[in-house]
Amino acid sequence: MQQILDTLVPLPASVLNERFDLLAWNAAYEVLWPGVVGAAPGERNVLWLNFTHAECCHPYVNRDNQLSTLVAQLRGAYGRHLGEPTWTGFVRRLQARSPHFAQLWAEHDVASQATYLKIFRHPAHERLAMTTTSLAVLAVPGTRVVVYTPADEVTQQAVAGLLRGEGTDARFPCWDFHQRQRSELERAGLAAGPPEAG
Q1: For residue range 123-182, what is the model confidence (pLDDT) as tens digits?
Q2: 21 CB contacts (<8 Å, ≥6 apart)?
Q3: Which band of pLDDT confidence, cut at 50, 70 and 90, is reported for residue 198?
Q4: H helices within the chain, ranges in order?
Q5: pLDDT tier at 42 (50, 70, 90 boundaries)?
């Protein structure tokens, strides 16, 4: 799968399971979302990171629409994993951590994986429009490749620039604050544990 992802560059692409654990990615995905890729291996969960990410530097521009879609997709998969401790534990921990997730989960909306237009932002680019397409990996049930196709020329040029290293060191204005806050939590032993923990 990694070889396939790498051949898709300059298109960002990743492999996710039904619970949104990030399993693999290519270089284009990494330059767009270094925070997800840079998380500890047991904490690379796209859904968890999106609901616990600070509003001031959240990667989605159309956040409310996208988060409700993600939760509806999770609920669609959840029905195939009823009673599994890893799944129920994940949902309970995220409900406790994010009131927004708890509210959306209680709405019982269900969606399947499909093609969506997502609007992202990056510290070096205010608006990146991408069409996401999910492709099932039949050899590993419940796993999919998600490919991000730039929806306009501006986004295509932005991704190309990031792959050349342009803007990869950019930070949101709140970056220093979040680094200090994270360090304080770690010193106090309050850092969040891995979302998959039982």
Answers
A1: 999 999 999 999 999 989 899 999 999 999 999 999 999 999 999 999 888 888 878 887
A2: 44, 45, 46, 196
A3: very low
A4: 2-7, 27-32, 34-37, 46-52, 63-78, 85-97, 99-106, 153-163, 175-187
A5: confident
Instruction: Give residues with Cβ within 8 angstroms of 18, minimum separation 6.
Output: 74, 77, 80, 81, 142, 143
Q: Which residues contact 64 (CB under 8 A, 6 or more apart)?
A: none
Q: What is the rounded distance in angstroms from the CA atom of residue 24 to the CA atom of residue 144?
A: 10
Q: Do 42 and 196 touch, CB atoms closer than 8 A?
A: yes
Q: What's this model's pTM, rounded to 2 decimal places?
A: 0.86
Integer angstrom CA distances of residue 21 from 42, 66, 166, 174: 9, 17, 28, 26
Secondary structure percentages of the chain, helix, strand, coil, to 5? 45, 20, 35
Query: What domains are there in the chain, each with its CATH number?
Result: 2-187 (3.30.450.180)
DSSP 73-99: HHHHHHGGGTT-HHHHHHHHHHHHH-H
Residue 157's Cα: distance from chain center in Å? Answer: 22
